[in-house]
Design brief:
- This protein folds into three domains: 2-89, 3-Layer(aba) Sandwich (Rossmann fold); 120-184, Dna Ligase, domain 1, CATH 3.30.1490.20; 187-432, ATP-grasp fold, B domain (D-amino Acid Aminotransferase, Chain A, domain 1, 2-Layer Sandwich), CATH 3.30.470.20.
- Helix content is 34%, strand content 28%.
- The protein has helices spanning 10-20, 34-39, 51-59, 71-76, 78-84, 98-101, 103-112, 127-137, 163-177, 240-259, 292-297, 304-312, 350-355, 389-400, 416-430; strands spanning 2-6, 24-29, 42-45, 65-68, 88-89, 121-124, 140-143, 154-155, 180-184, 188-198, 202-204, 209-210, 213-215, 219-222, 227-231, 265-275, 278-285, 325-333, 345-348, 359-362, 365-368, 371-374, 380-386, 403-404, 407-408.
- A hairpin with a 3-residue loop joins strand 10 and strand 11 (202-204).
- Helix 8 packs antiparallel against helix 9 (163-177).
- The radius of gyration is 21 Å and the shape is globular.
- The termini are far apart.
- It binds adenosine monophosphate and glycine (GLY).
- The site of adenosine monophosphate has 15 residues, from strand 7 and strand 17.
C-alpha cells in the first residue's frame, strides 16, 4: 500500500515510523526532516499549505491512502486535495477541521448541541464589548479565534497584571483579526484526550499531560509544548469520571459535526481542564498533539495503517495500546522561546540513545554539509517508555544527555515531584 504523509515535525516523525512498519511511505514536507526522509520511499519538498503545490504532486502519483497532519494544512484544505483525487483520507476536511481553526465556531457548536464544558465566553468585535466582558469576568483568558501555534492565548495572573494590559491585548487582536474571544479564566489541571474517528464513532487513546510553559515549575511564556507524560489508562490526578466525561464530550462533538453535515474523520484532540466545577473544554484540535503523539503512538500495538484505513472507510477498527508509562522531553535551542540560537550544530550519539533505551524524534532541525543544525523552533523530542513513570522519566532524561550542543530541556517534566503537585492541587480543588 502506498501511503502519503504531509508534515515534517517530531509528531510526523513518529507517525511516519509507525506507518512505515506496514506500508510504502511517501512524504510531503515543507523542510526536509532527515528521519522522515530516511523512512520514506520518496519525498517531496514544497509549501505544504499550498493546495496547488500539493495537488501537483498528488496528480503524478497513485497513492492509496493519505494523512495530512499539521493544523495549517488542514485549514488550507489539503485533505480535500486528496479526496478530490479519489484517494482515501484519514485526516479531516477543511470544513470539519474548523473545530480547531475557528474557536468561535467550536463554542457555537458546543452551545447549539448542548455539549457541556464551555466556560463563560464571548466573541467580540469592538473594544467596548471587550471592556465589558473583561470587567464582567474579572479573571480572563484572551484568545485569537484562529490558529496561533499555541502562543496566542494570554491569561490573567500569568500574562496580565492590570486591566489596561487585558484591554490592550484584546484591542490588538481586534485590530489584527477583526474579533477576539474572551473567556472566564478556569482553574484546575489540564490534560489531553485524543481519539481516532471515522466520522461516526471514536476510539480513545491514553490521556496525556502536556506542558506548554517554557520553564520548570510551569512558569514563563506559552510554547508549542515542552514535553508530556502518560501513565497508562488514566493520569494520577484524574478520577475515572473525568475521563468518562471527556470521552462523552468527544463523542458528542463527532455526532454534532455529523449532524451539521461536516463529518469529522481524523484525530480529534480534546484539551480539557478538570476543575472544582467539573470538566471544562479549553479547545479541540483536528490532529494529533505535538508532543502528545509521541506518548500515545509509542504505545500503539495495532497497525496505524490499518486504523487509518478503517477511519477513511468509515468502519473504525479498535486500536490497542500497551499500558506502560511514557515521558517526552523536548530539546529546544538555547534562548528558546525568546531568542533561540539558530543554525547551531548539534551532535547526536544515536548509539548512546539506543543503549539507554530512549527514542529520538527529529523536530525542527536541518542538514547542511553532513551536519545537523538548529532552527528557531523545538529541535528534538526524546522519549522514555517503561513500566513506571519514574523509569520512563530517567530514560528520557538520560537520552537528552546524548545530544550535544546549544540545546536545553525542562528537567522537571515527568518527575514524581511535579506529578505530586498536580495530585495535591486537584485534591484541594475538589474539596473546596
Ligand atoms: P489554547 O491554545 O486554547 O489551548 O490555550 C493555550 C493555553 O492557555 C491552555 O493550555 C491553557 O493553559 C490556557 N488557557 C486557555 N484558555 C483558558 C481558560 N479559559 N482559562 C484558563 N487557562 C486557559
Ligand atoms: N500539545 C499541544 C498541541 O499540539 O496543540
Amino acid at each position: 500500500m502506498k501511503v502519503v504523509l504531509v508534515g515534517n515535525g517530531a509528531r510526523e516523525h513518529i507517525i511516519a515510523e509507525k506507518l512505515a512498519e506496514h506500508c510504502d511511505l511517501y512524504a510531503i514536507m515543507s523542510k526536509k526532516n532527515p528521519a522522515i526522509a530516511q523512512l520514506s520511499v520518496k519525498y517531496w519538498l514544497c509549501d505544504i499549505n499550498n493546495v496547488n503545490e500539493v495537488a501537483n504532486i498528488v496528480h503524478d502519483n497513485e497513492f492509496d491512502l493519505a494523512f495530512s497532519s499539521p493544523d495549517a494544512t488542514l485549514e488550507a484544505g489539503i485533505s480535500n486535495v486528496f479526496e478530490n483525487a479519489g484517494i482515501l483520507v484519514a485526516s479531516p476536511s477543511k470544513s470539519a477541521s474548523r473545530i480547531e481553526w475557528d474557536k468561535g465556531f467550536m463554542r457555537t457548536i458546543m452551545k447549539n448541541h448542548k455539549i457541556k464544558g464551555s466556560p463563560k465566553h464571548e466573541v467580540v468585535d469592538n473594544v467596548d464589548g471587550a471592556v465589558k466582558a473583561i470587567r464582567d469576568y474579572g479573571q480572563v483568558a484572551i484568545k485569537p479565534l484562529g490558529l496561533s501555534g499555541g502562543k496566542g492565548v494570554k491569561v490573567s495572573g500569568d500574562h496580565f497584571d492590570s486591566i489596561d494590559e487585558k484591554i490592550g491585548y484584546a484591542q490588538e487582536l481586534i485590530r489584527k483579526d477583526g474579533c477576539v474571544l474572551i473567556e472566564e479564566k478556569l482553574i484546575g489541571e489540564e490534560f489531553t484526550l485524543q481519539a481516532f474517528s471515522d466520522g461516526s464513532r471514536i476510539a480513545v487513546m491514553p490521556p496525556v499531560q502536556d506542558h506548554k510553559r517554557a520553564y520548570a515549575g510551569d512558569s514563563g511564556a506559552n510554547t508549542g509544548g515542552m514535553g508530556s507524560y502518560s501513565t497508562g489508562a488514566n493520569l494520577p490526578f484524574l478520577e475515572k469520571s473525568d475521563l468518562d466525561d471527556a470521552t462523552k464530550i468527544l463523542k458528542e462533538i463527532i455526532h454534532a459535526l455529523k449532524k451539521e453535515e461536516v463529518p469529522f474523520r481524523g484525530i480529534l484532540y480534546g484539551q480539557f481542564m478538570a476543575t472544582a466545577d467539573g470538566l471544562k473544554v479549553i479547545e479541540f484540535n483536528a490532529r494529533f498533539g505535538d508532543p502528545e503523539a509521541m506518548n500515545v503512538l509509542s504505545l500503539l500495538k495495532t497497525s496505524l495503517v490499518d486504523i487509518f484505513l478503517s477511519m477513511a472507510e468509515g468502519r473504525l477498527s479498535k486500536p490497542e495500546f500497551s499500558d506502560e508509562c511514557t515521558v517526552l522531553k523536548y530539546l529546544v535551542p538555547e534562548g528558546y522561546p525568546d531568542s533561540p540560537k539558530k543554525d547551531a550544530e548539534v551532535l547526536i550519539d544515536s548509539f548512546g540513545i539506543e543503549k539507554c533505551g530512549a527514542s529520538l524524534y527529529y523536530a525542527s532541525v536541518y542538514e547542511k554539509d553532513g551536519k545537523i543544525l538548529t532552527t528557531s523552533s523545538r529541535a528534538f523530542g526524546v522519549l522514555g517508555k517503561a513500566k513506571t513513570l519514574e523509569e520512563a522519566e530517567k530514560i528520557a532524561e538520560n537520552g537528552c544527555n546524548f545530544v550535544k550542543g546549544p540545546v536545553w530541556h525542562r528537567e522537571d517534566i515527568g518527575t514524581q515531584e511535579l506529578v505530586n503537585k498536580r495530585i495535591t492541587n486537584m485534591k484541594s480543588l475538589r474539596s473546596s
